[in-house]
Amino acid sequence: MTHAPRYRDAHIERDEARGEFDRASATSRWVTVCGPPGVGKSRGVAAWLSGAGRVCWVDLAGVLGEDAALEALRRELGVEREGGALEEQLAWALSTRGVEVLVWDNADESGLGERAAALLDGAEGLSVCATSRGRLGVDGERVVALTPLAPDEGVRLLRARAGEHGVECLEEDSAELERIVRALDGLPMALELAANWLEMLGARELAQRLSGGEDLLDAMPIDDARYTTLHQAVAWSWSQLGEVERSVLTQCGSWRGSFSLDDACAFVEARGVLGALHGLHGMGLLRSSRAGGARFELYGVVREVALASGAREVVEGARGRLTGWLVARARRGESAEHALETAIALVSSAECEERAWLCVLASRSLRARGELGRAEEVMELAGDVESGPVVLERARVRFAQGRYGAVSYTHLTLPTIYSV
Q1: Which of 4, 41, 197, 361 is placed for a possible disulfide with 46 were both Cys, Cβ 3.0 to 4.6 Å?
Q2: Nearest CA to 323 among 345, 300, 292, 291?
Q3: Is 383 left (phi over 0), alpha (psi -120 to 50) or beta?
Q4: Of 250, 244, 230, 248, nearest to 308 (Cα)?
Q5: Which 3 state secondary structure label does DSSP give 289?
Q6: How many CB atoms lie within 10 A of CB 188?
Q7: Residue 41 burial (CB < 10 Å; 0-12/13-18/19+)?
C-alpha cells in the first residue's frame, strides 16, 4: 500500500491554505484540493498529511473513468477480484487495514462519483482527499482552492532553490526576485524551473527576460511523469475544453492583466461568455477576484498556450475588436485603467492611426500613475504621427517632466488643440 509520496522541502508554509484544508477535513469526509496546473496540489496534500495515520495514495494520472479508478485502487491494495460489488470489497479492505485517508491524486479524468463515494459508507473512519484542477461534484464534497504563492512566499522559494544550485541571492536582489515571481504568476512549478536559470543569468537579467515575455521555461523539464514541460501540463487542460471554452480562452488571451465581465463582453465574440468563464475558472485556467467587482485574469503560461493553440482567425478577430474598443475609449478622452498593458501590447500590430491612439490612451494612464519615463517611451512608439492628440499628449508628458514651461504649449495651434 502506497503512503504519501515524499517531496523535497518546498520551503512554502502556506499556513492559510493548510488551515482551510484542516477546517474542511473537520467538517467533511471528502475534500478536493483544486487549482491551476503547477500550483502544487499534490505536494501540498502530501505535506498536510505527513502527520496523518495510514494513508493510501492512488495516482489517477491517465486513468479514465470511475471503473478504471476503482481498479487502480484494487491493484494498490492488492485485493483479489471476487464476485459482488467491487466498491464493497474495497471498502472492507480499507477498513480492515486501518486506512484513515484515501488520496485520489490527479483525479481530473477519473469521473469519480457515487461508487467512489460509497467507499465512505462501507469504511468507518475513512476520509477521502482528492486533487484535481476543478471540483469533482461528489456528494458532500468540500473544495479547497489552492492559489499561487504571494510574492514573499515565491521569493523565499526562489532563494531556497537557488541556494541548492550554489547561487546566493543577495538582499539587493529582492526586487528582481519579486519581479520574477510576478512574471510567473506565483506558480511554484514555474518558479522551480526559473531557479535553474539564476546561476547562468542572475536575478536582474532573468527578471528582464521573463517580464519581456521571453519563454525560458519550456526548455526545462519538470518533475512530473505525466508531462515534459509546464506548457504540456497546460496543453492537457486545453485538450479537455469544449469548442466555446477554447474560443473564449483564446480571445481572452489578447488581454493582459485582469478584466471585468463588461470588458470581456466588449471584445469576446461567443455565445455564453459568462458560462464559459465559469467553466475555465473551474478548471483552474482563470483566476478571479471580487475586489471592486468581479475580475478575471489568465495565468501567463495559459495565455501562451491559448494563443499558440487557438485558431488564428479567432486570435486576430479578438485583437481587432479589442483594438477598436480601446481606440474608441481614447477618442472619448478616457485613460486605459486596467487595459494599460493590453493597449501597449497591441501597439505593434495596430495600423498607423490606431497605433497612435493606443499610445495616447496608455500614456494618459502612465502620466496619472507618475510613470513619466515610461509614458515618454510609449509615445515614441507612435512614430512620426503628428496628429493633434499625439502632439498634445507628448507635450503633456514633457510638461509633467518639467521640460516645458507653461508658455511652451503655444507651439500648438488652436486648430491642433481643438482637433483632440
Answers
A1: 4
A2: 345
A3: left
A4: 250
A5: strand
A6: 24
A7: buried
Count CB neighbours of 380 within 10 A: 10
Same domain membership, residue 136 and residue 22: yes
Of 211, 238, 258, which residue constitutes the final position of a domain? Answer: 211
pLDDT at 239 > cutoff 90: no
3-state secondary structure of 35: coil
316: nearest Cα among 253, 246, 234, 235: 253
Predicted confidence (pLDDT) per residue in 334-383, tens digit: 888 889 999 999 998 899 899 999 999 999 999 999 999 999 999 999 98
Count of domains for the chain: 3
> Whole-prediction pTM value?
0.73
CB within 8 A of 178, min separation 6: which ones? 151, 154, 155
Q: pLDDT digits over 50-89, tens only? A: 877 889 999 998 888 999 999 999 999 988 877 778 889 9
Average pLDDT over residues 136-140: 90
Give the domain extent around 370. Answer: 340-420
CATH number of the domain bearing residue 99: 3.40.50.300
Query: Three-class SS of residue 226?
Result: coil
Same domain, 156 and 182: yes
In a shared domain, residues 26 and 115: yes
Task: Let me know if residue 306 belongs to a domain.
Answer: no
Note every long-range contact of 388-394, with CB atoms under 8 Å and residues 24 or more positions apart, other chains counting: 388/412, 388/415, 388/416, 388/417, 388/418, 388/419, 388/420, 389/330, 389/356, 389/357, 389/360, 389/419, 389/420, 390/356, 390/359, 390/360, 391/416, 392/416, 392/417, 392/420, 393/359, 393/360, 393/363, 393/364
Q: Specify whether 51 is located in the same domain as 163.
A: no
Read off the DSSP letter of residue 162.
H
**Is 278 inside any structural domain?**
no
> Is residue 52 one of the residues assigned to a domain?
yes
pLDDT for 234 equals 85
Biggest CA pair distance of the chain: 95
Looking at 125-229, which runs of residues are DSSP E strands? 127-132, 141-145
* Nearest-angstrom CA–CA distance, 345 and 355: 11
8 A C-beta contact, residue 45 and residue 103: yes
Query: Do 21 and 141 fall within a single domain?
Result: yes
Please identify which residue in the block is written with the cell numbers 474495497: 90
